[in-house]
Amino acid sequence: MAMKQGSSVLAPAPSFVMYEHIAKSLGMPFNGVQLNEDFSLDMSAMMAAIEEYNPAVIFLAYPNNPTANLFNDADLLAIINASKGVVVIDEAYQPFAGKTFLPRAKEFERLLVMRTVSKLGLAGLRLGFVVGHASLVEQLEKIRLPYNINVFTQMTASFAFKHIDVLNAQAVLICEQREVLLGQLSALNGVQVFPSKANFILFSLLDDSAQRVFDELKAVGVLIKKMADAEGLPPNTLRVTVGSKVENELFFSELKNILL
Ligand SMILES: Cc1ncc(COP(=O)(O)O)c(C=O)c1O
Question: Measured from the CB, is residue 116 less than 6 Å from ligand 1?
């Protein structure tokens, strides 16, 4: 695909890895701006990067993956106002966040709010959508491939949206379970737990090895994610997806045994 000379993509780091992968696969330079230690946006670094690179697209995951936090709304607005390119607020984890920029999507000519049905429990559909100002969506229409959403996906999605209350109720249960798990993990010695507004929890081991804990959990049939070092996260960081009550209880009791 031909790219306008000098177009680049910018996102905080760490964030969803696909922003960088896709930018690079399209031949666009990618710039990651390190988050603050508490995973908030480093606004002076963000503003300096916007000034320096003038990115064509900025991705802001809200809540962010893998850090699980929501960025500050005023910071997001400042970025939208400073950017000359498109700002995508990626609300993949919105069902668990209790907050959204969707009602504001049409206020800004350069803002797109992006959603997916994946985290609602329909990841197999491979369906996402964006909402934005008509003038911007019109431009996207020009490059959208014909028939890009197949009929089965369309039918399944419209059936799912008619029963959105079922999916929303499931998200509420996950949020309740998240709070239980956050409380349990916070009470463990040697574990630093980070706040979460997503359907996963990030935690660091202060005096143990993430690889050892990951391997031992896996050996008893519990698969979580070991975060790579040097990603702007503390060392020995793991990410667990909130599951059903039974799954979470199994995870937590196994973790407690392993850390003993
Ligand atoms: C922040 C963020 N955005 C988007 C996605 C993509 O979801 P999907 O490709 O399943 O629609 C993910 C998936 O992990 C994500 O973490």
Answer: yes
Q: Which CATH number fits domain 165-259: 3.30.1360.140, 2.30.130.10, 3.50.30.30, 3.90.1150.10?
A: 3.90.1150.10
119 CA to centre of ligand 1 in angstroms: 8
Identify the residue whose C-alpha is closest to ligand 1 atom 9.
126
pLDDT in tens, 136-165: 999 999 999 999 999 999 999 999 999 999
Residue 90, ligand 1, Cβ within 6 A: yes
Task: Answer whether 252 contacts ligand 1 (Cβ < 6 A).
Answer: no
Q: Quick: pLDDT tens for 241-260.
A: 999 999 999 999 999 999 98
Phi, psi angle pair for 61, to nearest 5°: -85, 130
Residue 91 Cβ inside 6 Å of ligand 1? The answer reads no
Whole-structure pTM value? 0.95
